[in-house]
Design a protein that fits this description.
single chain, 793 residues, alpha+beta, Rossmann fold, Adenine-n6-DNA-methyltransferase TaqI, Chain A, domain 2, 4 domains, 5-stranded mixed beta sheet, 18 strands, elongated
């Protein structure tokens, strides 16, 4: 470092010896150049004016030392190392080789960040990029630079200017795209790298060589390189200019690159908008099933009509799983009074409005939507009208001369995914990258694409609406009272056949769609239309999971959420207000929305007993035992278990875990549980809960069960006393001990339940399950799972 050196004093000493050799400003420039040398290191560039004086400075300093002036001699000693450093940094080499340090711009200390911005504006986003630029400066015009760096400079928009400079001023000779695992002892699977060689000078029309070595470990990468595997030599350097953002998509052929110039961009057919940021999703978003269904907008309203509707919760696109064609319609957003609460949501300290990007003119319009994070292929869905959208659920709106279905067909095709990977090889792509894709807009192509897309959307909507978490769910496919069958197994097999046909037809549609666009884009040599089954996002037939869904639907019918007499939601309101028992003639709903699920038959109306009633109501009494057996086998019968015991065990031990998973940790059937001993468990339907529910739970179930367990203990104790063998007495004694533990647990639970029942807790469904579930202390199961942490929403 140069701190402590007095520029003026040194200059004065030098001038007193040979003023004509060097001027004071040169010394000042030398000292200032190395003021932060320990921070900037070899990134320091020697100014031209200083570089021209480096040859004479050692001679001047030697004369200063000979002058005999004590201070001047000491100053010369301090200055000489700076001269030597400057001479090294000013040198140029035939070859510059390095594995540079990595540090993102956001991690740089302030001085380094400011220096990088000023000295390396195109490479400022990472230290390794600045080091690469410095190496090119260090190389002679005929010299070479060889680096190993992170591979992101090849793709991301932050390095676009850097790529253009390299292509325009230098020559990329070759590049090995190593990906992850190239140096496992150093970086493991985290850092993805590329090794490359540049020539400092630019050679017009040069055809660089690339090796795609991203798969496999170090040994495989080395072997592939030696075997010339993954070798590409397709594009001249100048061809990369023709790829949007000058992305280094070395796999592309010249013909593919031509598409970006010969066809209009997708921007000519679609208007893409990034959605809203509420700045507090936990406050403003809900899963649609959490809230009062009367407050949820399910109509396809226009925006102006919707604003007048007085509905609080509007459908909300928020990205999510990679379902194609249709789905992920799970969220709702608080948009009461045109989103007044969100629009005025501000920082308590500064008063600055935190939410933004409301997209009013695009609200309630239908369009295409997808997640911002992609995968091997795009997964684009149709978003019906009547909703809003989030920053993670970007939407595209068709321009007047194109149907939205045709756009979705293109975006879900192989050519679209292939082209998008060329301009955005990373998992996350941006709007500008998507709309830069070439879009062939021939009428015949658009018409055929639209027809196929509509069929695919219809198939996937049918599939989505067969899930309970869909707003369009009407009934379980294989649990219909009008199926004409009297056997659960037969109806399940029918549904299996329907699903298989859908699955096969969707594959056929997608492959036809792929072929349509492959032909339109002339990509026959690059792509084939085949679709792997893993890409089809329809629900698979699974006997065990389907029977778990049957249990869930049956419990929904018990609770009054569904009815065997009417399709769709019957009761999902609030506080049990407006509940109509007359709508459940075939299979009566529970009187109070409380269903016990104890591991023994303590109550005649427990869940397992009511499953029997449900199977009888749907398939009749004649095949009841056959259906119970098949259902139990599907759930996994253990040795010596009866069907009732298997079903009871599943409901008591596993149902709520499955329910939590299905309903994304926002359950609608709440599990009240006495604790580890499992003395008492009951499900309570959220939408039928009211301030007297806990009192009923206690009076109708917990207090009677306490008495029943006590009576059972007394009876077993008498049996043990009368037992004829030690083995029989020991067996009964174990049972007594087990029941005593349950009795103690239940007494404690009863006391706790009485306390909360006296509080007459009310729920505001607008607050959501997460907030309401935590109001009951330890009365409920999995409280921490449901209430979670502050950052879960």
């Amino acid at each position: 470092e140069s701190k402590g050196l007095s520029v003026d004093s040194i200059a004065q000493a030098i001038n007193s010896v040979r003023a004509e050799l060097v001027e004071a400003h040169v010394i000042r420039q030398l000292v200032e150049t190395f003021e932060h040398a320990k921070t900037f290191g070899s990134l320091i560039q020697i100014p031209y004016a200083l570089k021209t004086q480096l040859a004479v400075l050692p001679q001047v300093l030697a004369l200063v030392k000979q002058s005999g002036e004590l201070y001047a001699s000491a100053a010369a000693d301090d200055l000489l190392p700076l001269v030597q450093q400057a001479q090294v940094l000013a040198m140029q080499f035939d070859a510059v080789v390095a594995n540079p340090p990595y540090m993102g711009g956001n991690s740089m200390p302030a001085q380094l960040k400011q220096f990088a911005l000023a000295s390396y504006p195109e490479e400022k986003n990472d230290l390794y990029a600045a080091m690469l630029r410095r190496a090119i400066i260090n190389a002679r015009s005929t010299g070479f630079v060889s680096f190993v760096t992170m591979h992101m400079w090849m793709y991301i928009s932050a390095f676009e200017s850097m790529r253009k400079r390299i292509i325009g001023q230098n020559t990329l000779v070759n590049l090995c795209h190593l990906g992850a695992g190239a140096f496992s002892e150093i970086s493991g699977e985290v850092v993805k790298t590329a090794a490359f060689v540049f020539q400092s000078a630019h050679v017009n029309g040069y055809l660089p060589t690339f090796f795609n070595l991203q798969s496999g470990d170090e040994e495989k990468k080395s072997s592939d390189l030696k075997g010339n595997i993954g070798r590409y030599q397709r594009l001249k350097l100048e061809d990369f200019y023709r790829i949007p953002a000058t992305v280094m998509s070395y796999q592309a052929s010249p013909m593919v690159v031509d598409l970006f110039e010969s066809e209009a961009s997708l921007a000519s057919a679609i208007d893409v908008r990034e959605g809203m940021t509420t700045a507090d999703n936990g406050n403003f978003l809900r899963m649609w099933w959490e809230v009062n269904s009367y407050k949820v907008g399910v109509q396809d309203l226009k925006y102006e009509d919707a604003k007048k509707s007085n509905l609080k919760w509007w459908r909300y696109q928020k990205g999510g799983e990679g379902n194609r064609w249709y789905g992920n319609n799970e969220y709702v957003v608080n948009w009461l009074n045109d989103g007044a609460e969100i629009r005025k949501f501000s920082d308590v300290t500064t008063g600055r409005i935190r939410s933004h990007n409301y997209n009013d003119t695009y609200s309630c319009r239908d369009g295409a939507t997808w997640s911002t994070i992609g995968g091997a292929s795009l997964a684009v869905r149709y978003a019906p009208p009547g909703g809003l959208f989030d920053t993670t659920g970007i939407m595209g709106f068709a321009r007047p001369d194109v149907a939205v279905d045709a756009l979705i067909a293109f975006l879900n095709s192989k050519p679209a995914s292939y082209l998008l990977q060329l301009v955005s090889p990373m998992l996350r792509f941006k709007i500008n990258q998507l709309i830069s894709l070439p879009f062939v807009k021939k009428p015949h192509l658009m018409e055929n694409a639209m027809k196929m897309a509509r069929e695919a959307i219809n198939i996937c909507k049918l599939d989505w609406d067969e899930r309970e978490i869909s707003m369009g769910f009407e009934k379980l496919m294989f649990a219909s009272t009008n199926s004409g069958s009297d056997a659960l197994q037969i109806d399940w097999k029918k549904s299996d056949s329907i699903r298989a046909n859908r699955f096969g037809y969707l594959i056929e549609l997608e492959e036809k769609n792929n072929q349509l666009f492959i032909d339109a884009y002339g990509l026959q040599s690059e792509l084939s239309p085949e679709v792997p089954e893993s890409q089809i996002t329809l629900a698979r037939t699974d006997r065990e999971k389907d029977c778990q869904r049957l249990i869930s639907y049956a419990i929904g019918c018990m609770m009054g959420r569904y009815s065997l007499d009417e399709p769709g939601l019957i009761y999902a309101h609030a506080g049990n207000v407006g509940f109509e028992p007359g709508r459940y003639a075939t299979f009566p709903a529970d009187a109070d929305g409380i269903v016990p699920i104890t591991d023994e038959l303590w109550f005649a109306d427990d869940a397992c007993s009511r499953i029997r009633e449900f199977l009888r109501a749907v398939w009749g009494p004649d095949t009841l035992e056959e259906n119970m057996t098949w259902l139990a086998e599907s759930l996994g019968t253990k040795a010596s278990e009866t069907p009732d015991e298997t079903i009871r065990r599943y409901i008591a031990d596993k149902f709520f875990k499955d329910h939590l998973q299905t309903y994304k940790k926002r359950p609608i059937y709440w599990l009240f549980s006495s604790g580890k001993q499992g003395a008492f468990q009951a499900l309570v339907y959220l939408h039928r809960y009211f301030d007297g529910t806990l009192a009923r739970l206690r009076a109708e179930y917990v207090v009677p069960l306490t008495g029943k367990i006590q009576s059972r203990i007394e009876m077993l104790q008498k049996d043990a006393a009368a037992a004829s063998s030690t083995a029989a007495r020991n067996k009964l004694a174990k049972e007594v001990e087990k029941l005593k533990k349950k009795h103690v647990e239940l007494l404690a639970y009863d006391e706790q339940l009485r306390h909360y029942a006296d509080m007459r807790i009310t729920l505001d469904l607008d607050d959501g399950v997460k907030a309401n579930y935590g109001k009951f202390g330890d009365l409920l199961d999995s409280v921490k799972v449901v209430t979670g942490g502050a950052g879960e929403d």
